[in-house]
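The methods section describes the discrete structure representation at length, but only in general terms. What matters is that the chain and its backbone geometry are given together, residue for residue. For illustration, here is how one protein appears when written out as sequence plus structure tokens:
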Amino acid sequence: MSATTLSIQGMRCQGCAEKVERALRDVPGVATVAVDLDHNTAIIEGGGAPGNLVSAVQTAGFTASVVPDVQQNPSIV
């Protein structure tokens, strides 16, 4: 199962994190979501397209960007 990590800006409380988690769970193909408020990230497993994941977070009122997979692209380290 593939995983996508998002960097999320604008989360300030647990309620924000829960809103982001709900939005991501609604994206077709998503199997699991883990939102980390302390690190402002979300790890999404399943077949959700990265663009759809970012769009869902934006619709929920936050800013998101895909964190490149270091294992797939070691030149970004």
Q: What stands out?
A: The first strand starts at residue 3 and ends at 9. The CA atoms of residues 32 and 45 lie 5 Å apart. The chain has a mean pLDDT of 91. The chain has one domain: 3-67.
